[in-house]
């Protein structure tokens, strides 16, 4: 799948949030999130500071290369980094590849405030109006009902095509994933 690229990092703004390129000051808060067992409950494990920084470096470099990606989310009221929300082209080979997925990871003290939904709606608008994508996918372990609720709130539909994530070994409790999708047509009609 060939997606559009922009010369400089795109920023998106909502009523309460700024989706922007990552800054060095974001890294410590991101590492705190990635070391939190509750935040990482639906991932294979918590991340060390080194692993978290490497992930942030990778996300930042992808935004530099394309102009978009998994944006750092900043709360406008206090300029606080609260996590990431955005778009990503998965590196794993899935039955539904190639695709662009939407994803998020937020600080637990912001959960239940509609931040993931608000930021994800802005990311979808960008995906369909600027990137002209035909569809956007999202997936998560079957145990992650909170993320699936966000997917539904932003207009995504469960495809019913659950799959085993290739990065996780057979028998792993998080291996089975739900697959959600929204097409450009569904988004426009919502």
Chain-wise SSE layout:
Layout: E1 12-13, E2 17-20, H1 26-34, H2 49-66, E3 70-75, E4 80-88, E5 101-106, H3 115-129, E6 135-141, H4 145-153, E7 157-158, E8 163-164, E9 176-183, H5 184-189
Antiparallel strand pairs: 1-2, 2-3, 3-4, 4-5, 6-9, 7-9, 8-9
Describe the 3D structure:
The chain starts with 11 loop residues before the first strand and ends with a helix. A five-stranded antiparallel sheet has the order 1-2-3-4-5, sandwiched between helices. The chain has five helices and nine strands. It is an alpha+beta fold and 190 residues long. It is globular, with a radius of gyration of 16 Å. It has helices spanning 26-34, 49-66, 115-129, 145-153, 184-189, and strands at residues 12-13, 17-20, 70-75, 80-88, 101-106, 135-141, 157-158, 163-164, 176-183. A hairpin with a 4-residue loop joins strand 3 (70-75) and strand 4. The chain has a single domain, classed as Aminopeptidase (3-Layer(aba) Sandwich). The model has no long low-confidence stretch (mean pLDDT 95).
């Amino acid at each position: 799948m060939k997606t559009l690229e922009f010369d400089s990092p795109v920023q998106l703004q909502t009523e309460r949030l700024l989706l922007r390129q990552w800054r060095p000051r974001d890294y410590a808060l991101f590492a705190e999130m990635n070391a939190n067992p509750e935040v990482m409950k639906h991932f294979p494990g918590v991340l060390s500071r080194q692993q978290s920084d490497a992930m942030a470096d990778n996300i930042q470099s992808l935004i530099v290369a394309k102009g978009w990606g998994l944006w750092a989310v900043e709360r406008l009221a206090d300029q606080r980094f609260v996590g990431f929300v955005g778009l990503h082209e998965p590196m794993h080979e899935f039955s539904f590849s190639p695709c662009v997925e939407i994803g998020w990871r937020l600080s637990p003290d912001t959960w239940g405030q509609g931040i993931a939904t608000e930021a994800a709606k802005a990311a979808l608008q960008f995906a369909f109006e600027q990137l002209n994508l035909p569809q956007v996918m999202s997936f998560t372990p079957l145990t992650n009902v909170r993320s699936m609720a966000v997917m539904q709130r932003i207009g995504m539909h469960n495809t019913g095509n659950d799959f085993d994530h290739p990065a996780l070994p057979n028998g792993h409790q998080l291996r089975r994933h739900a697959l959600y999708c929204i097409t450009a047509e569904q988004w426009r009609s919502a």
